[in-house]
Each structure stands twice: as structure tokens, then as C-alpha cells.
Design a protein that fits this description.
With 409 residues, the chain is α+β, with helices and mostly antiparallel strands. The protein folds into two domains: 212 residues, no CATH class; 151 residues, Beta-Lactamase, CATH 3.30.450. The chain contains eleven helices and eight strands. It has a six-stranded antiparallel β-sheet, sandwiched between helices. Helix 3 runs antiparallel to helix 4, helix 3 runs parallel beside helix 5 and helix 4 runs antiparallel to helix 5. This is Sensor histidine kinase/response regulator. Keywords: Kinase, Membrane, Transferase, Transmembrane, Transmembrane helix.
């Protein structure tokens, strides 16, 4: 998966092309099951959603619990009231305390699913034991109704993944029946089916349907985010291309006017420094006997005095390279130092833009920067190489014509 989601994060993961196809196939199934890491990401999302829902409804659950139990405690005078409190009151009160710890104590975040499941199992086991022990009495009916309420809350409000909820519910049934058999209580299978078996099936089916709906919504959200990212990328590419074309037009206007070679390269160098991360640079024309520096900006005095340089070292490597742009991240000491005020700074990065006509190298522009040249800067400079090459050929042709004309005259 391209991005990940943590319990404390509200952002959804991004998906790649393969996962996008998997999501579309999953949407065509009944229960919308995801493959691989998509399923893991959904479980994390479901647990985060459960924590949020319980946090919002916890006090409502407490009020509902008190609304059911307080009238029984106050108005019912029954010899079995102490037994009902043991099985129908305190287990649910303890379950609500566990829910409070699960959603309100951040240190217990990693145990949240287990705490919620234990709260569900404890409350269900208690009400089941109460309904079994007090069968045939009013308080036994109250415990049976409490069992149904807890099942509804477990699958519809707590909203853990339904398989986990079903596991804890079946665990409570096993625990309650085991204790009832150990204690020698009689269990009426028909009554157990009425207040636990059938409600469990209905609530579980409802829970799976709610989960399928939530999965459907989750998958659609991921697909919409994927489409939004794709549209945003297309828009960014279009904006980047528009900016590149605008800068290219500005550059061609900047070097227009049939200037001499030195003026042309100085104008090109100034434009590249102004519209990029470079702080200084130099422009060279290729001659038969080496390289002649035609323009320089931001260099120290010693570097500016070198009008002609040998075709070797980094410059030779740039001229011999296949691409128009060559980048150097390891600048030798004393090479193309920058002059800022009263100090001299060693550049951290160099970029060489080779100006070619076909396979012939006409010149090279050398740019120095303290920061790396990013991909956008490299792409822009590479786009400037072609029009600069045409302008340089024209300028060199004019200078050659003028020189030959003067020699002939």
C-alpha cells in the first residue's frame, strides 16, 4: 500500500493501480472483502471508527443502563433481587467501565479491541447467567431482555468488525453455559433460543450488513481519493507545463535581438540564475584550443580572471556526457567559489548545461548553488538548451561573417 494509516490518524491510505483494481472487484461482491493489506487497513479504520462511536455514545449507554436498572432496583421488591444485581447489574456496570477505559485512556489504545470485546463478553455472560438462574421469574425476564439489548448494542453501536463481535458473543455463551452446568443449574434450550439464539442470529446478520455497507463506503472513498489524486496530478502537470512554456517564451524574448556571443551567453546565464536555485555561474564557448569563458556572474575575483580554461575535469565530463544536463554534488575545494559580500563560499552543487547542435558541443553553462537542483529546475534548464543552441549558432555565424568580412576588407 502506498500510504499507511495508524490508530491516531484520521487520513485514509492511498492506493496504487493494482489495489484500485482489487477495490473495484471487491465492490462487486456481497460482503465486500478486501485482499491483503487493504483488509488490514480497513480493520484499522474499523477499530478507529468503533472508538469514535463508543466515545460519542458512551454516556448515552450509561443513561440507558440506568434507565433500565434503576427502576428495578427502586421499585421491585423480590427475593431474587440480590441475584439479579449480581448477574444483571454489576457485569454491565463493569462492562461500561471497561468501555470508558478503552476509549478515554490513550495508553490503552493498543488493547482497545480486546477491552471492548471483554466488556461485551462480561455483560452478556452475566445477563445470560441471570436469565438462566432466574428463569420463570420477573427478574429472569429482565435479564433476558438485557441480553437482547446488549446484543443489539454490540453489533449496532460498538461496531467492531462483526466477526470479532460474534467471537466474543459465542465466548460469552460458552462461559455462561459452562458455569451453569458446573453450578448444576437447569438450562431450557427453547428459552435460550428465544432470548439469545434467535436475537444473536438477527443481530449478527444486521452487523454483517452494516459492515458490508461501511466497507462499500470505505472502498468508494479510497477510489474517489485515487481519482482526486489522479486529477490533481494531471492539473499539476498541466500547470507545470504551462509554467515551463511561459518561462521558455520569456527566455526566448530575453535573448532576442541578435546579440553577440558574449552578450547572448551573459543574458542566458542571468536568466538561469534568476529563475533557478543557482547563485552564480559561468558560460563557456567551445574553441579549438579549449574553452573560452564568455560570461560569469557571482564568482570570486580569481575565478573571473580565468578567461580561457582547458577542456578537462568537470567541464570535459559535462561536454562528453550524453545528456544536456550533468549534476555534480561533490564540488572540489576552490572550484567556482561564490563571492557574497566580504566572504567566499564553496558551492554545494554544480549543474552543467551543455549546448549542442546535433552531436557537436558549442558551449556549456556552469551553475553553482548551495541547494540541490531539483527535477523541475533540471527540466527547465534542459528545455532552454535547444533555443539557446539555435541562438548561439546564429550569433557565432554572425561573428564569423563579420570577422571574415573585416579580414577581406
Amino acid at each position: 500500500m502506498s500510504g499507511s494509516t495508524s490508530n491516531g490518524s484520521t487520513s485514509k491510505p492511498t492506493v496504487d493501480a493494482r489495489q484500485e483494481r482489487d477495490l473495484k472487484r471487491a465492490l462487486a461482491t456481497l460482503w465486500v472483502r478486501f485482499p491483503g493489506s487493504l483488509e488490514d487497513a480497513y480493520i484499522v479504520h474499523a477499530l478507529r471508527r468503533a472508538r469514535k462511536l463508543i466515545g460519542r455514545s458512551l454516556y448515552v449507554l450509561i443513561v440507558l443502563f440506568l434507565a433500565v436498572t434503576l427502576p428495578v432496583l427502586v421499585f421491585v421488591d423480590d427475593s431474587y433481587l440480590a441475584s439479579w444485581r449480581l448477574y444483571g447489574f454489576w457485569p454491565i456496570a463493569g462492562a461500561l467501565a471497561l468501555l470508558f477505559l478503552a476509549v478515554k485512556v490513550d495508553a490503552l489504545n493498543r488493547f482497545m479491541s480486546t477491552l471492548i470485546g471483554m466488556a461485551l463478553m462480561i455483560s452478556l455472560a452475566g445477563t445470560l447467567l441471570g436469565a438462566i438462574k432466574l428463569a420463570g421469574t420477573f427478574l429472569g425476564q429482565v435479564a433476558a431482555f438485557e441480553t437482547v439489548y446488549v446484543l443489539i448494542i454490540g453489533f449496532s453501536i460498538l461496531r467492531l468488525p462483526p466477526t470479532r463481535t460474534l467471537f466474543w458473543c459465542l465466548g460469552s455463551l460458552v462461559l455462561a453455559l459452562t458455569l451453569a452446568l458446573v453450578l448444576g443449574w437447569s438450562v431450557d434450550p427453547a428459552a435460550l433460543l428465544l432470548f439469545y439464539g434467535f436475537p444473536l442470529v438477527v443481530c449478527a446478520l444486521n452487523g454483517y450488513m452494516l459492515d458490508a455497507s461501511a466497507r462499500h463506503s470505505y472502498a468508494n472513498t479510497l477510489l474517489l481519493n485515487r481519482e482526486s489524486d489522479r486529477l490533481r496530478q494531471w492539473r499539476d502537470n498541466a500547470d507545470r507545463e504551462a509554467r515551463r512554456q511561459a518561462l521558455l517564451n520569456d527566455f526566448m524574448a530575453h535573448i532576442a535581438g541578435n546579440p553577440r556571443v558574449a552578450v547572448l551567453l551573459d543574458q542566458a546565464l542571468a536568466f538561469m540564475i534568476e529563475h533557478g536555485p543557482a547563485m552564480a555561474g559561468a558560460a563557456y564557448r567551445v574553441d579549438d584550443d579549449g574553452l573560452h569563458r564568455e560570461a560569469a556572474r557571482g564568482l570570486n575575483a580569481e575565478a573571473r580572471r580565468e578567461g580561457r580554461v582547458e577542456r578537462d575535469g568537470l567541464l570535459a565530463g559535462a561536454l562528453d556526457a550524453e545528456g544536456a544536463v550533468t549534476v555534480c554534488h561533490d564540488v572540489p575545494a576552490g572550484y567556482l567559489d561564490l563571492e557574497t559580500g566580504q566572504s567566499v563560499i564553496r558551492p554545494g552543487h554544480l549543474l552543467f548545461l551543455t549546448i549542442r547542435q546535433g552531436d557537436e558541443a558549442l558551449g556549456v553553462v556552469e551553475l553553482a548553488s548551495l541547494e540541490p537542483f531539483d527535477q523541475d529546475a533540471r527540466t527547465l534548464l534542459e528545455a532552454l538548451a535547444a533555443p539557446l543552441a539555435y541562438a548561439l549558432v546564429a550569433a557565432m555565424g554572425r561573428e564569423d561573417y563579420i570577422r571574415r568580412h573585416r579580414q577581406a576588407g
